[in-house]
Design goal:
The protein is 50% helix and 9% strand. By secondary structure, it is mostly helical. The chain has one domain: rbstp2171. It has a three-stranded antiparallel beta sheet with strand order 1-2-3. It is globular. It starts with a helix and ends with a helix.
């Protein structure tokens, strides 16, 4: 039996997980698609240096929240000076929690290299 509209919408609530004491919230569909679309400069048809440099902190700024669900880093640039290993590990956890495939970035980079 197919689910009702109410059952469908109930699956839309935010999910939370923790990674090394940091609370991550899931993305809404709109946040997910906007972040994904922002990774490529469609006018130029490729990934630019700016997009690469800002991609990870922008995702973390959307997903790192306090106990009340409030974003801890609404300005993604606050993450620029943090340890790269720490940010990389947190980013990997965020990507997994958001539902991005592990190889999404590899595919994007391969496509960019081909162009």
């Amino acid at each position: 039996m197919a689910m009702s509209k109410e059952q469908f919408l109930a699956k839309s609530s935010r999910r939370y997980t923790e990674h090394e004491g940091v609370r991550l919230q899931s993305l809404t569909a709109k946040e997910y698609f906007e972040w994904e679309a922002d990774r490529i400069d469609y006018a130029k048809g490729k990934v630019t240096k700016e997009k690469i440099v800002t991609s990870r902190p922008k995702l973390l700024s959307l997903m790192v929240v306090d106990e009340d669900g409030k974003r801890m880093f609404p300005d993604y640039r606050e993450l620029d000076g943090l340890d790269s290993k720490w940010i990389g590990d947190l980013y990997d956890a965020a990507m997994s929690h958001a539902g991005f495939a592990d190889d999404d970035e590899v595919k994007d980079e391969e496509e960019t290299e081909k162009n």
